[in-house]
Amino acid sequence: MKSRPLVVANNLMFEQGKVLLLRRAEDGLWCTPGGKVEDESVVEAGRRETLEECGLSLLGKPHFLGYSEISRKQQGRPPLLIMHLLWARWQGKAAACEKGFMDCRWFEPKGLPVLHNLTEGTRQGFRLVADDYGLVHSSAVSGFVWANALRGY
């Protein structure tokens, strides 16, 4: 019997050429804010999870980058269906607000030590940003620097 996928929101946020990442306490991996959709839309879940995890209120509407899937059959868990959202506006100061996270920081792409230590869902979101040259070039993502830094991830 096929498992029903767990739908999650993955929020990518860039500010002055830096990306916001949280470090998970359970395994030390870095991820973007987000989490599972409960009795709400993907956008509402993205807003709720970001506020809970790092204290930022997301404003306006996100750009939908696409989706990706992660099979977790080997772990005996349902697959993940990840909806990747790019946000342009928010308010508040980012900080790790839940005990499931031990750090929250804005990172520049050059020399970013955590690229090899990202969750697979975050890596997939970065691939979507890097592949969308029109969006990357015209947004506050510091386009070509990030696109080049994220090639191959």
Could you explain the architecture of this structure?
With 153 residues, the protein is of the alpha+beta class. The protein has a single domain, classed as Nucleoside Triphosphate Pyrophosphohydrolase. The chain is 25% helix and 33% strand. It is built from four helices and nine strands; from the N terminus they run ββββαβββββααα. The strands form two sheets. Strands 1, 2, 3, 4, 6, 7 and 9 form a seven-stranded mixed sheet that branches. A two-stranded antiparallel ribbon has the order 5-8. A hairpin with a 2-residue loop joins strand 1 (6-15) and strand 2. Helix 2 (120-131) crosses helix 4 (143-150).
Q: Specify the overall morphology.
A: globular
Give the helices and strands as they follow along the chain.
Answer: EEEEHEEEEEHHH
Q: Main sheet?
A: 7 strands, mixed
Per DSSP E runs of 2 or more residues, the count of β-strands stands at 9
Structural class designation:
alpha+beta
Percent of sequence in beta strands: 25-35%
Instruction: Return the CATH class.
Output: Alpha Beta
Parts with pLDDT < 50 across at least 5 consecutive residues: 133-144
Average predicted local confidence, pLDDT: 82
Distance between the termini: 32 Å
The amount of helix comes to 25-40%
